[in-house]
Structure formats: structure tokens, C-alpha cells
Specification:
single chain; alpha+beta; 2 helices; globular
Amino acid sequence: MVRKGKIAEIFSRALHSDNPELYTVGYIDLGEIKKVTLVEFLKASENFQVIPASRIVYIMKENITLYSKIKNRKEPDQI
């Protein structure tokens, strides 16, 4: 699935012990950041075959940022 680390931990927790529809993933696609639910991301990425984990910019659960490549970020729209 995902390489070990923070992203793998978040995805595992979301898929196995939480509601994955509450999670939002921002990833780079053609130079722009696309914002989708975790379930939509997994379908679009075909389990990271099409979109690698390295293109994930942030992961949020509701309004809380769980992972971000950019330090001190508050809103995903500020990227």
C-alpha cells in the first residue's frame, strides 16, 4: 500500500478503525492540488499505482490537519 510512516499510519487508522469519508487528501495533479476524500483518492490512485504517496501534500480529518508536507500550514487553500 503506502510506504511506512505517518501516511501509512493515517491511512490504516482511517480504513480500519474510523470513517474514511471524514478524511480529505490533497495531492498534486498536473501542477495543481486536488482535494478529494480518502476513498476517492484510493480509487483514483489504484492503491498508489497511478498516484504515488510522494504526491500527497496534506491529509485532513474534518478540519484537523493530520499530515502536511508544508510546515505551519493552517488551511489547504494557502498552498
